[in-house]
């Protein structure tokens, strides 16, 4: 054992991460430190590409975090404040920021709940479950248990006002939300979601007022809420904004979310504070790579950072994806531009399967033709008439394909008559695929 030194084993160190991991696995634990001290250890890779997964260093979002800090403080002090909506393409970190906002509220002892909207599901049940969680967080600190039970009775009535059809049976089944108090009658149980949600929000805000804190409901993929439910949500938030109740809705969605809200209620453009989340600037993208690496004793050359920024284009998900593969590929620190050149094809291959390909596979043949026509016209929003010309079809005949892609969240209507991809670099991916 004493004769095994780092120079003796260095020639055996494979360049590829998967082979190096196998090599490490064959060493006895007491010998492993001799190797990892001179290499970029894949086990300690800090980068985290994943849906909604918080990166090791949250950068470039200071402005949004400061804005939400102000919202929390103003609401807690009884000052009027608008709910907040985050919009942006997929992969820019909306869900990460939404979860961070929730953590900020929890630190201030707010009650919180979160839902993820679905286009084929009413928000009644998810909202009931989320507010149930929020009130459970507040209940141990409330001085009047009877007051909590009274609200839970209203919440149960609200939940049970929705019905779930049972296959093969004419009568629907009433949903039991698992709240161990009798359902109240005459409050939030009319069956009209706009009326019921408004009454529920007002009562929840009253409970929060008793404690001098607030309640925050977080809604991810908010553009997928059914139209009637969007209208009900806007109406309930409008009532809260007039009464000053300490309950806010924090939403995240695709770039056309403001248009979805505006179509339901004309006043929604004044009801919410909108924050557009975009790619990171160069300094923030570099920091997202450098800071977690330095904590592990690893650095990047300037040329490597240049190459990584060019490849990732500042999109947070891509920064993590390229950073992770570059780390696994690099044999030693500092990570060089040569390592990036080797890593880039592997990172692009993983993105082609997991990030791009999985979405492409959801589309029908007609929808894929529509997207390929969009891609052939460039990466900016394109007129629907140009897509029709590219396919040699009438625009009206392509409406089903376009509407299907919008419903699946693959494209969005940037403005009237224009469509764009919801996923950055999706056009480049389609142009690189064989027809």
Folded structure, characterized:
With 435 residues, the chain is of the alpha/beta class. It contains 19 helices and ten strands. The strands form three sheets. Strands 2-5-6-1-7 form a five-stranded parallel β-sheet. It has a three-stranded antiparallel β-sheet with strand order 8-10-9. The protein has a two-stranded antiparallel sheet with strand order 3-4. Helix 13 (302-312) packs parallel to helix 15 (337-360) and helix 16 (365-376) crosses helix 17. The radius of gyration is 26 Å and the shape is globular. Mean pLDDT is 85; it is low at 1-38.
Sum up the structure in keywords.
Rossmann fold; 435 residues; 3 domains; Arc Repressor Mutant, subunit A; five-stranded parallel β-sheet
Topology diagram in text:
Elements: H1 6-9, H2 17-25, H3 32-36, H4 62-76, E1 83-87, H5 94-107, E2 111-116, H6 124-138, H7 145-160, E3 163-164, E4 173-174, H8 193-211, E5 215-220, H9 227-243, E6 247-253, H10 257-264, H11 268-271, E7 272-276, H12 282-295, H13 302-312, H14 316-329, H15 337-360, H16 365-376, E8 382-383, H17 384-391, H18 399-407, E9 411-415, E10 418-421, H19 426-431
Helix pairs in contact: 4-5, 6-7, 6-8, 7-8, 8-9, 13-14, 13-15, 14-15, 16-17
